[in-house]
Known about the structure:
Strand order of the largest sheet: 5-7-9-11-14-15
Strand content: 25-35%
GO biological process, one term: cell morphogenesis
Helix content: 10-25%
Shape: elongated
InterPro entries: CAP/MinC_C, MinC, MinC_C_sf, MinC_N, Septum_form_inhib_MinC_C
CATH class of the largest domain: Mainly Beta
Subunit structure: Interacts with MinD and FtsZ.
Mean pLDDT: 76
Family: Belongs to the MinC family.
Keywords: Cell cycle, Cell division, Septation
Radius of gyration: 19 Å
Amino acid sequence: MSEDIVKIKGTSLGLQLSFAPEASFEEVRENLRQKLESGTTFFLRGTLVLIPRDVFMGSERDELQHLFHEYGLICRTQKPETEQAKQPEAKATVPPAPQPAVPPASQPEELKPQEMVVVNKTLRGGQEIRTKSSVLVCGNVNPGAQIIAGGSIDIRGTCRGMVHAGAYGDSTAFIIADHLMPTQIRISNLIARSPDEMEKTDRAERASIKDGQIVIEPIERQDKTI
Length: 226
């Protein structure tokens, strides 16, 4: 049952989590910790994570929020769909006011919620994604396509285009793809190209900055789908 304890759904704002009804809080917490420690790229640094408000007690929700905070993510609780449906229609005419859980002055800049761009298609030649946040692509990035992201980039497919993570100076950003064969790869202010011949592998590959240069290495994905 371990693979189904936590289910993850990508949205335009970030990641929405749901939990197996029979799972205890301890099982959910440990399953999430294992995913976070393994470096699974559902949880990109700075991503907004939404958890159901009606699943755990307040202290348990606080513990999950603290867990995500340790790994540089933002965790927010989400109202049940039935509760959202009961809200008066008149409220739609009132501009919604932002309600941060922590005063902006006390929240570190790198931990402020930011939108994660989720692309549920293959990027073809000539198409471009440009954003200050992280990017998740559920498809391929074909030659001639490019992604320029302020955060990290996760491609659930083959990357043959140009990818630039940490485009605004974040040297901790990284790029992951099931098959990483870009025409050009950039992280922060560093540039590299894929070698003409790469060893074939069934494992995903991760590019990151180590010792002042871009290094590409195989990794294990724990989750195959969102």
